[in-house]
Amino acid sequence: MKIALIDSGIGLLAAAATVHRLRPDADLVLSGDPASMPWGPRTPEDLTAHALACARAAAAHRPDALIVACNTASVHALAAIRAELEPELPVIGTVPAIKPAAAAGGPVAIWATPATTGSPYQRGLIRDFAAGVEVTEVPCPGLADAVERADSAAIDAAVAAAAALTPAGTRALVLGCTHYELVDDRIRAAVQPRLGPDAPELVLHGSAPAVAAQALRRAGTAPDPDAAPTGRLTVLLSGREGALQPAALAYREGRSLVEAAAARS
């Protein structure tokens, strides 16, 4: 079995590591284009072209399912990717986990890129899945870029700025960008003290678990964490085989994938 993931940079690591944890026997193909990062400021047409190029490169390796592991690409390019690759190759998009976050009743905060915050897309998700729930949209300028560079000081500054905009009383926080899932521990550490001494533990909602589970379902299989760890790792950079960027090793998800691959080489 083989699962492919695409993103401009290392935002795909959270979903990739989750797939590996659920199926250590699955081969992984990580297809990115760091030279075109970030995708957010690009026009929808330009972003779609780059995402399609990454998807085509991944599809050439004949995976059983393809994850678009980027919120922005899922908004603008998912339909085009599906139109080209499905039904032969199941394509799974990434949607902010607003529905499960709102299920407990809120209040809910959604951290997202400035381009996504307040967008018709995100407002539509709030309308459809969080009606009647108190929701605060929190823009996080610079956070995805800082995570991509593994710039610790810039990450802390961006997280602190977003935490200052997150209301006291927030019970659930949606990580509306796949990059944010790589620093979920730092986000919790910054937000929890602002909620008050008697506040319950903040619940963070990333997309990786649901996306990984859906990819396995669409591939016609089920989780098996105890499977033999035989899965191989292929990294594509602008369509050419390469290695994970050094910044990926700053995160436990990147290190776990590299260490697992090294153990099988």
Class by alpha and beta content = alpha/beta
Stretches with pLDDT under 50, minimum 5 residues: none
Count of the separate structural domains: 2
Helix-strand string: EHEHEHHEHEHEHHEHEHEEH
The biggest beta sheet reads: 6 strands, mixed
Count of separate DSSP helical elements: 11
In order across it, which strands form the biggest sheet? 4-3-1-2-9-10
Termini separation comes to: 18 Å
Looking at CATH, which topology of the largest domain would you report? Rossmann fold
Report the sheet-strand fraction: 15-25%
Report the average pLDDT across residues: 93
- Strand element count: 10
In helices, the fraction of residues equals 40-55%
Per CATH, which architecture of the largest domain? 3-Layer(aba) Sandwich
Shape: globular
Radius of gyration (CA) equals 18 Å
CATH class of the largest domain: Alpha Beta
Task: Walk me through the structure.
GO terms for molecular function: glutamate racemase activity. Helix content is 41%, strand content 16%. Strand 9 (233-237) and strand 10 form a beta hairpin. The model has no long low-confidence stretch (mean pLDDT 93). A 6-stranded mixed β-sheet has the order 4-3-1-2-9-10, sandwiched between helices. Strands 6-5-7-8 form a 4-stranded parallel β-sheet. The protein has 11 helices and 10 strands. By secondary structure, the chain is of the alpha/beta class.
